[in-house]
Each structure stands twice: as C-alpha cells, then as structure tokens.
C-alpha cells in the first residue's frame, strides 16, 4: 500500500530537496510528476491538490495535503538526525530555511529559471538578469562566509538547512551562470552532499 | 538583568510580528530600533548583529543571534499555545509561514514598501506597481478562501501562522492600496487579532 504521494516538478530545486531527503532517509513515496506548464500540473491544480498553486505538495496516505518544500522537509525530517536535538540549533536551522525561501530562492532560483525555462524568456531582460546576478553574488557570499571553516550550516552534521540551501545552490553555476569559482567553501560543501550515502541528483 | 534584545525595524511588518508575539505572551525584551536607512541599522550591521543584513534579529542573553522573523517566532513560541501540539497542524502552520516568506511578503510587503518608503520611490514604476497589485490580489484570495468559515489559519485557535501573516496583511490596504473590501473574511480575522488581550499595533 502506498504511504504517501509527492506532487513534484522534475526540474525544480524545491521539489528536488524533498526527493533528496526521501532518498537519504530511504523512505518510499509515490511521485507524480507535474512539470512547469504541463497538462499534469494543470490537472493537479484543477483537482485541488496544489493548495498554493505550485509544487511540491505532499499528500499523506489519508489525503491530507502539505504544501511548501521546507515545511515538507520538516514533516519528513521528524525523528531523523537531520533535525538537531538542541533547541538553539533547531532555531538556527529554521533561520537558514526561512532565509532560503525569502532571499536566496527569489534571486538564485529566479535567475536560473529565467535562463532555463523557454516560457520565461520574455521576462529575462538584460537589466533583470544583471540585477539578479549582483544580488545573487551577495547572497552566495553570505553562504560562503558561513561555510568557510565548517562542514555544515548548523552544528556538526547535515541538517535540513543544508538540503534546503543545496536545492538551488548546486545549479547556480550551470543554470544561473554565476561564476562559482569565487566560492570554494560552497563547492566543497556541495561535494560533501553529493558524496552522502543514498544521494540522488536532480534528474536521477 | 535584561534577558534578550530584539533588533527591530519600527516600520517593518517582519519586526512587528515579533513585537506582537512578545506582547501577547507578556515577555520582556529590550528593543533596539534600527529603522530603514538609519545610522542605527548601519551601526548594527557594522557590529555584526544582523547576520543576513536585515532586521529583525533576536540577540539571546548570552549573545547568540537569531535572524529571520518566522524563525524568531518559532523560538519564542516554544512552550506556548501558539504552536499546535498536533504534528500535522504544526506542519500546516509551517506551510503558511514559509508561504508567507516566499510568496506573500515578496508581493504584499514589497508593494507597500514601494508606496511607503521615500527611498524606494524610484523603484515604484507604474508597471511594477500594477504587477504587484495583480499578484497580490491572487495571494490575498488564497488567504480569503482559507479564512472563509474558520476563525484561524490552522486548527481552532491562534497560531504563529496567524501572527506571521497578519504582519503585512493588516497594512495591505493602508500601505499597499489593495482594495480590502474584496476580502471580508480577512477583515474579520484582522479584527479578531486586534481584539486579543495584550495586542499592540504596529506603532504602539
């Protein structure tokens, strides 16, 4: 019997975060692919499965829905080592996760999307791309400074904050055309995550 | 002896959320005002008190820092009735809080800021304001639909999700010039929050 279903956009870093956590903790989940601008995502919206109009959404076995990638990480991460036991470290983890959704995603992922999805080409003006490039370098520098001299964003081991930030950071170079040679600590951190047992890539 | 210090931007909904929670739970906290573009916010940044370059930031009694409004709400809310005991309701609460930071704040608060802060006037082009108006109505409709027929966003009582969303929603009309007469359920919910024992307004 299937336990739960993830409505997942294959090309999206937000959906990938959740698939990566599922792989790392070895948890089964049915996946419904709802790619950007596809009939499948339109059908899922029409069926009321995407409460905020976007993926990912986790549907529990009893039909209850949970939208928002980082809220899904928190739900699936309960009882795993990826949520620190220490109260302050847990709060720090949430700080990084809210920063990811409020600052990082709206710049790094957005520039990547403008360059990646043909449907967004008309929005990809030179001015907009330049603004996102400059702001993105500022945000990546915050991440770089944090990771200089430490392996993980919070505490001494991988937490949900690392997975949340990895989702779009690891394609900042390939999709967003940020010059990632400026950020050696980020690159080493990406390598550490890609070496984790059970790791899957964005398109695995 | 002071327990903790909040670096708070007086005019900001993100900072106000935290001050409102402190007032509702009757918890003392020193407040350092760091208004937008002020010498005080520059000094706090230079002193390393604003890790992500913005307010609010909670400084614990031992000097540890916690940025991000909704992470601060989660920290201060521990052990209060504003975090549901039920695991799914807690996850739902976080869904709304991440949605607030990822979708709602970047539209409702941003349009309000463009119209409110003289320093942002040059960014307030008619095209940008019109785009934020249209997207904002879509986001407010999601909130309206959720609140139709229920008193609070999650479960049967006030949670941190209500405070997080109230921060910028309650000035969407006055600052953002959204026509709030379209959203009667939101207006009733705002009235319920303003009637809570201990409530303070944005400038109280």
TrEMBL record, chains A, B:
It holds the Pfam family GST_N_3. The keyword Ribosomal protein does not apply. Residues 86-204 form the GST C-terminal domain. Its EC number is 2.5.1.18. PROSITE patterns: GST_CTER (PS50405), GST_NTER (PS50404). One of its GO terms (molecular function) is glutathione transferase activity. Residues 2-84 form the GST N-terminal domain. It comes from the Bacteria. Keywords: Transferase. This is Glutathione S-transferase. The keyword Transferase applies. It is an enzyme of class 2 (transferase).
